[in-house]
Fold this protein.
Amino acid sequence: MMLTTADKRAAFRKLHEAGCFIIPNPFDVGSAKALQHLGFKALASTSAGFAWTMGQPDNRVTVDDVCNHLTAICAAVDIPVNADFEDGFAHEPDKVAVNVASAVKSGVAGLSIEDFTGDNARPLFDRALAVERIKAARQAIDADKSGVLLTGRCEAFLRGIKDLNLVIDRLTAYAEAGADCLYAPGISTKEEISAVVKAVHPRPVNLLVGAAGPSLADAGSLGVRRISVGGALARMAWAGVMKAAKEMAEQGTFTEFANGYPGGELNKMFK
């Protein structure tokens, strides 16, 4: 029996109450189904991973593309899905609210709003505007009592601003503005992670882990509630495609296909 959207949203909130869980990032319906098959309790979309399936760089797809993608993934799996909703696909708070309302209709259990402007020269929205954008997202989520979990993201570390005090100031402000979960992609040391967890307590913290980083157990011991991997799984998939394709293009040989995942196993999994 498929769970209702309300069931998924309630389950997602419960996951944030104790312990630490991995929320891996599928990039299409097939990868979402595979991750559910492996026993993960929730999933998160990846803006980069999805953009690459569309032949676009990250942060270059439309809000309609993303909402259609989210609708398809939410309908395909029986576990909660969190949306990487980038900057809300607008700068102005009222437009962010309109787009968040559209995302809520896709069936997501959660979504994140980041403070990256899209301009590397001035990467972060002014603090006051960034806070208003979180408030607008909160109001849009609460308008129909959807129960969607809102994550506030500070992009400072990812954009080269390694100022932990700035990050903590913003995350605490986002929490006050209505964010249920806080996220600062790019923090990595025990000291940074612990400081963020302590600053926003008791609200849960999401940690981004890529090629290196703490294990699930170690992150949990630091007080992290949730670990996501961003575009890492998508990059792994592309690594296999590009390695085999380059071999064909450059050498005219096909040996890399021996490393492919068995088609019979995939058919069995998707049956």
In short: Residues 150 and 179 are 5 Å apart (CA to CA).
